[in-house]
Amino acid sequence: MISFGRLKYDLKNSIIMAAMTAVISLTSAHADDFTQCSQSFYGGVYPEFINTKLSNQTQALCMDGFAVMYSGVSRTPLWSAEYLNRDRLQQAKQIDREDSFHEESRLPQSMRASLSDYSGSGYDRGHLAPNADMATRSQQYDSFSLANIAPQSPRNNRYIWRNIESATRYLTQQYGEVYTVTGVAFTDKKTKQLADRVLVPSHFFKAVYIPAINQAGVYYAPNDESERIEVISIDELATEIGVDVLPVLDAKTKTQAFALPLKAGESSDLPDATIEEPAWMLFVFAIFEWLLAQLRA
């Protein structure tokens, strides 16, 4: 016969074990979120926090076509990762832009940014994973989630960042495929806020890795109207922001900054670039060929 006390003890243990199992299950689900979108990361390995404070209240989100590490502290993404190839970009060219900025329903209400946070703020809603990279309507819709958006200086967003996004697509066409991690940094001693809720990044960055030549570099720009931008190495970025964005790269590739172009079509630093002849030279060649044909006639 089982005593009442023994039954009570067993029931209590069962409840505790069930609760622990549930917690472990939820933790594992959170940790394994990126397994559904591992193709967005080079080697299937996502960025690692060097500064563990940044991981506070973070949420991994698999989006259609890219992956996001979202921060409930800043109410912005910390970074978004993409895998780009020629086929994807060719498909993306066929889709016209449809703005559909929206709150991310998968996030707890307390962690979300809202559309009203950006209203009248003076900052653009800056995409981390760009709309122009998206190959389907579903991918495009996900790119307009506020989980992929951060407050961005208008001039930075519309000029500097637009150029480097185009340059990244140019590199993809040039070399066949690239992996990118685009993110934000908060390095100022005093951080601005939108509506006392959304933190304004001090910098934006875009890390680019080109497997064909095993080279990587990072575009790094202050989030202001200065139009300043520099190209740094993966290791230099890690020192600046406390995140190793491409942890599986070899040490040499991480320490050397590949001379990324600042505009699409810049080919002076690209070993395999195709340089087109100027139009006037083609015209001269055409005349020359015509004269030769006349002499032979």
UniProtKB/TrEMBL annotation:
Protein's UniProt keywords contain Thylakoid: no
Catalytic residues (UniProt): H127
Range of residues in the leader sequence: 1-31
InterPro entries named in the record: DNA/RNA_endonuclease_AS, DNA/RNA_non-sp_Endonuclease_sf, Endo_G_ENPP1-like_dom, ENPP1-3/EXOG-like_nuc-like, His-Me_finger_sf, Non-specific_endonuclease
E.C. numbers: 3.1.30.-
Binding site residues for Mg(2+): N157
Molecular functions per Gene Ontology: metal ion binding; nucleic acid binding; RNA endonuclease activity; single-stranded DNA endodeoxyribonuclease activity
Keyword terms of this UniProt record: Endonuclease, Hydrolase, Magnesium, Metal-binding, Nuclease, Signal
Location of the DNA/RNA non-specific endonuclease/pyrophosphatase/phosphodiesterase domain: 62-252
Similarity remark: Belongs to the DNA/RNA non-specific endonuclease family.
Designated name of the protein: Endonuclease
Organism whose genome encodes this protein: Psychrobacter aquaticus CMS 56
